[in-house]
Automatic annotation (TrEMBL):
It holds the Pfam family SecG. It is found in: Cell membrane. Belongs to the SecG family. NCBIfam families: secG. The chain crosses the membrane at residues 53-75. This is Protein-export membrane protein SecG. PANTHER family: PROTEIN-EXPORT MEMBRANE PROTEIN SECG (PTHR34182).
Length: 76
């Protein structure tokens, strides 16, 4: 049982790292000035929808990470 929780915790950790890295930054620095033209041509709604989805996935993975971490701590 402990091994299964540890493996699942590792998978959730890697998934959480990947989802956080896929999200766009909130600062509109130089990259925001350069990417502004492409957003204007392509449209911002698709990017906002993807960011919202990634945000929801991040919250779900973070909650799962906390539950698995507490569960793994009890099996030590």
């Amino acid at each position: 049982m402990k091994l299964a929780i540890d493996i699942l915790l590792g998978i959730v950790c890697v998934a959480l790292i990947l989802v956080v890295l896929l999200q766009s930054g909130k600062s509109a620095g130089l990259s925001g000035a350069i990417g502004g033209a492409s957003e204007h041509l392509i449209g911002k709604t698709k990017a906002r929808g993807l960011d919202a989805l990634l945000g929801k996935i991040t919250v779900a993975l973070a909650v799962l990470f906390m539950i698995l971490t507490l569960t793994a701590a009890f099996f030590v």
